[in-house]
Design brief:
The structure is a homodimer. Chain A is mainly beta and about 160 residues long. The first copy, chain A, is built from one helix and 16 strands. The first copy, chain A, has one domain: Jelly Rolls (Sandwich). In chain A, the strands form four sheets. In chain A, strands 1, 6, 8, 11, 13, 14 and 16 form a seven-stranded mixed sheet that branches. In chain A, strand 3 and strand 4 form a beta hairpin. The longest helix of chain A has 4 residues. Strand 4 of chain A pairs antiparallel with strand 5 of chain B.
């Protein structure tokens, strides 16, 4: 079982896979100065036949070390995960190498970050590290399956930092 | 100053104004049984010329009693607020009465709820009751102002339950 270390989630490291949704960087002051708006942070893409939707996911918490062999991607749409808690969660992604995923990478959020997977990005399933594993998910609503799964020949073991 | 009591946020009471985004009711089991998907919970509407976007709001926490005289609405789009914490927040809405807002109503969330204001719904500004006042906001991205404000002739005072 091949070990994978985790890395802190940063916008730069995550850029090939998607967007980090957090309250850093530029903002507009709104509501008479009482609120910072960090504007339009995600590259949303729901394809020609899809539309945006908000679903609520309630996932069981996992712990490190975490073993997996399955990843998935959504060929027809981006998928954003917004944690409804201040707990860090585990984010697993993999680069595409000619139609199949390469070596996975693992990130851990800082407790104040959401993410948006760009359309077609290979990723692991939702893996909160603390209960409740409650997330708002902004993804494509449509009539097609919009799901590709890939099982690696061997399992990976996310061991932490 | 006219007092307003708060009520627990429920889908039934909030229905004239928008959607409650939470992990109640029907779901699909996904990710090999490890995750409940409460599917497509918000009536999103970004008008003919808008598109969906995700912005991050960082608002100052307020406390009860809370006084206000200003409400607003977005004529061209719905607006969803997903708390990135488990803290309750205050939701102020008002029915439309011929183009101006009527008597406001105040709700307090249970710490595991987001909301989606339907297009054109009068509402107060974002009012977290605890720091950090961090929210993901799914609303209309477009080139028009998409904002109407209304200041009541007298202030209202939200006093709690």
């Amino acid at each position: 079982m091949t070990p994978i270390k985790t890395h802190p989630l940063t916008a730069a490291a995550f850029a090939p896979f998607g967007d980090v949704l957090d309250a850093t960087g530029e903002f507009r002051l709104i509501n008479e100065g009482m609120c910072q708006r960090h504007h339009d942070r995600a590259a949303l893409d729901f394809g020609p036949a899809g539309r945006a939707g908000i679903s609520i996911f309630n996932a069981e918490a996992r712990a490190l070390p975490y073993e997996f062999s399955l990843v998935e991607r959504h060929p027809e749409g981006s998928q954003a995960f917004v944690p409804m808690s201040e707990h860090p969660f585990l984010v697993i992604v993999a680069p595409d190498e000619g139609g199949t995923p390469g070596t996975p990478r693992a990130f851990v959020t800082n407790g104040a970050q959401g993410i948006n997977f760009h359309r077609g990005t290979w990723h692991g399933v939702l893996t909160p590290l603390h209960a409740p594993g409650l997330f708002a998910v902004i993804d494509r609503i449509g009539t097609t399956a919009n799901l590709e799964e890939y099982r690696y020949a061997q399992a990976w073991r996310v061991i932490g930092a």
